[in-house]
Write a structure and sequence with these properties.
The structure is a single chain. The protein is mostly helical and 499 residues long. Helix content is 74%, strand content 3%. It has a two-stranded antiparallel sheet with strand order 1-2. β1 and β2 form a beta hairpin. The two termini are 36 Å apart.
Length: 499
C-alpha cells in the first residue's frame, strides 16, 4: 500500500478512531478527551494539506475497498472533493476548540465529542466519495451521527426537534437511495467522473433518467433545506451552539448542497442535464428558497432562528449557481460552499458567545452589546457584512460571480433574485449590527460571566470567531491567491466546462 492509496482513508480515520476511543472515556477524563479531540483535528488538517498540495499539482489519491461483490467503497481526492474536505477539516478544528470551551463543566461530554467526531468522519467521507454508492453510505451515516447531537440537551423541546430531524432526513435518505438504486439498475456502478459518468451511456431512456434525477435532488434537498423540505432546520436550533455551527457550516446542509453539485456535474454532467431540461425546475426551487428564507429570517425574534432561516436562503445560492449552467455561475456556487460555511460558522460562534456569556438569545436584546463584547461583535459584523455581500468580504466574491454568471447565461431573473435577497439580507442583519454598536446598553444583562482576567469571554470562545472572521476578510481581499477557494473554483469549472 502506497501513500496515495492510504491518505484518503487516513483522513476519514483521523476523526473516526479518536471518536470511538472518546466514547469509552469517563466524564472525568478531561485532559485525555481534549488531547484526542485536538490530535485528531490537527492530524486531519495536516493530511489534507498534503493532499491539497498533491492534487493542485495533478497527483491522484484514491482508496478503493471491496464492499459487496462488484461494489467498491471508493474515496477519491478530486479538486471538487478537496474544496469541501478542506472546509470540513479547518472548521472542524476551530469548532473543536470552541466546543471544548463551550461545554466545559457540562454533562455527557464523552458522548457529545464521540458523535461529534463521527459526524465529521461521515462528512469527509461524503466529500471524497468516488462513486454514488460511497456517497449514499456516508450520507446515511451522517444522519445517524448528527441525531444524538441535535437531542444532546435531552429536553422535551430537543427530543421533539430530534424526531422531526429524523423524520425529514430518513425520508430524504430513502429518496436518495431509490434514485441511486434506479441508476445502478440502468448502468451498474455510478462513479463520479468530471463531465458526468452517465455521458458514457447515450442511449438511456429519458423518462427514467429524469425520474432518478428528481429522486436524487429531492433526497439531497432535505439536508440542503430546499423549500418545502426545510422544516427540520429551524427546530434543530435547540441544539448547543457548536452543533448549530456544525449543522449549518460544515456538515448537514453543506452535505446536501455538495451532493446536488455532484449529481449535476459528476453523475449526469453538463450536457445531459441540459438535454433533459432538469435544471430549470432546480433553478426555480433554489430561487424560491432564497427569497422565502430571507423573508422568514426577517420575521424571527430569536437570534439563532434568524440565522437558521438565513442558512435556508444562503445555501440555495449554491444550487442556483449549478442550475444557471455556465462556468462563471458555477464558480460562484462552488466558492459559496466555502464562503457561506466560514461566514455562517462565525455568526453561530458569536451567537453562542452571547448566549453563554450574557444570556442574550433575542435580536431585541442586542442593544449596546458591542461595548461589552467588542471582539465577538466585531466578528459578527464581519460575518453579517459577508452574508450581505459587502466588499471586500468573501460573500461579495460569491455574489459577484453568481450575478455575472447569470448575465452570461441570459438569466436576468436570477440577477433580480440576488438583488432582492441582498436587500433582505441587509434588512435582517444591519439592524442587529446597529443595535450592538450604537444603542445604549441595558443596566444589566440576564447574566454576565466575565472571566477573571478581564476578557469579554473565555479565549476558547472568543478565539474561533475572530479567526473565522479574519478568514472571511482574507478570502475576499486575496481571492486570487493559489490557496483561495476562488482559485479552486476556477480549476473545477475549467475541468467541467473546458473553460
Amino acid at each position: 500500500m502506497n501513500a496515495r492509496f492510504l491518505l484518503p482513508l487516513l483522513v476519514v480515520l483521523s476523526s473516526l478512531v479518536p471518536g470511538l476511543v472518546i466514547f469509552a472515556l469517563r466524564e472525568q477524563a478531561v485532559r485525555t478527551r481534549r488531547l484526542l479531540n485536538m490530535a485528531g483535528a490537527t492530524l486531519k488538517v495536516a493530511l489534507i494539506a498534503v493532499m491539497l498540495y498533491g492534487v493542485y499539482h495533478d497527483a491522484s489519491y484514491e482508496t478503493r475497498l471491496p464492499l459487496l461483490p462488484g461494489l467498491d467503497l471508493v474515496l477519491h481526492a478530486t479538486p471538487l472533493a478537496m474544496l469541501f474536505v478542506t472546509l470540513s477539516a479547518v472548521l472542524w478544528f476551530l469548532t473543536t476548540v470552541y466546543a471544548i470551551g463551550y461545554l466545559e463543566g457540562s454533562p455527557n461530554r464523552s458522548r457529545f465529542f464521540g458523535f461529534f467526531s463521527l459526524c465529521v468522519s461521515a462528512t469527509t467521507g461524503i466529500a471524497m466519495a468516488g462513486n454514488l454508492l460511497t456517497f449514499v453510505v456516508f450520507y446515511e451515516l451522517l444522519t445517524l451521527a448528527t441525531w444524538p447531537l441535535v437531542v444532546h440537551n435531552g429536553t422535551p423541546e430537543a427530543l421533539r426537534a430530534g424526531r422531526t430531524y429524523l423524520a425529514y432526513t430518513l425520508v430524504g435518505g430513502v429518496l436518495l437511495l431509490l434514485g441511486a438504486a434506479w441508476l445502478h439498475a440502468l448502468v451498474g456502478t455510478v462513479p463520479f467522473i468530471e463531465g458526468g459518468s452517465l455521458s458514457a451511456h447515450p442511449d438511456l431512456p429519458r423518462g427514467p433518467l429524469i425520474a432518478a434525477f428528481a429522486l436524487l435532488v429531492l433526497g439531497l434537498g432535505v439536508k440542503a433545506s430546499l423549500v418545502p423540505l426545510h422544516g427540520w432546520l429551524p427546530l434543530a436550533m435547540v441544539a448547543p451552539a457548536p452543533v448549530s455551527a456544525l449543522l449549518h457550516a460544515v456538515a448537514v446542509v453543506k452535505a446536501g448542497a455538495f451532493g446536488i453539485v455532484r449529481v449535476c456535474y459528476d453523475v449526469y454532467g453538463v450536457r445531459l442535464t441540459s438535454e433533459l431540461g432538469v435544471l430549470a425546475p432546480l433553478a426555480l426551487l433554489a430561487a424560491v428558497t432564497i427569497l422565502y428564507g430571507s423573508v422568514r429570517a426577517l420575521q424571527q425574534t430569536s437570534l439563532k432562528r434568524r440565522l437558521a432561516y438565513s442558512t435556508v436562503s444562503q445555501v440555495s445560492y449554491i444550487a442556483l449557481g449549478v442550475a444557471v449552467l455556465g462556468p462563471i455561475a458555477t464558480i460562484g456556487g462552488l466558492v459559496h460552499i466555502v464562503h457561506q460555511g466560514v461566514m455562517k460558522i462565525t455568526l453561530f460562534f458569536c451567537a453562542g458567545n452571547l448566549a453563554e456569556t450574557l444570556g442574550v438569545h433575542r435580536v431585541d436584546a442586542l442593544d449596546g452589546v458591542g461595548r461589552r463584547m467588542p471582539l465577538t461583535m466585531a466578528a459578527f459584523t464581519v460575518g453579517a457584512l459577508g452574508m450581505i455581500g459587502v466588499p471586500p468580504t468573501a460573500g461579495f466574491i460569491s455574489k459577484w460571480y453568481l450575478g455575472v454568471g447569470a448575465l452570461e447565461g441570459q438569466a436576468g431573473w436570477a440577477v433580480a433574485v440576488l438583488v432582492v435577497s441582498t436587500l433582505l439580507n441587509a434588512a435582517y442583519f444591519l439592524p442587529l449590527v446597529y443595535a450592538a454598536w450604537f444603542r445604549p446598553p441595558p443596566e444589566s444583562w440576564p447574566k454576565d460571566r466575565r472571566p477573571r482576567r478581564g476578557l469579554e469571554a473565555p479565549w476558547l470562545l472568543v478565539g474561533p470567531p475572530v479567526v473565522t472572521a479574519l478568514i472571511v476578510l482574507f478570502m475576499g481581499l486575496f481571492a486570487s491567491l493559489p490557496v483561495s477557494p476562488l482559485t479552486w473554483g476556477r480549476l473545477i469549472a475549467a475541468r467541467e466546462f473546458g473553460w
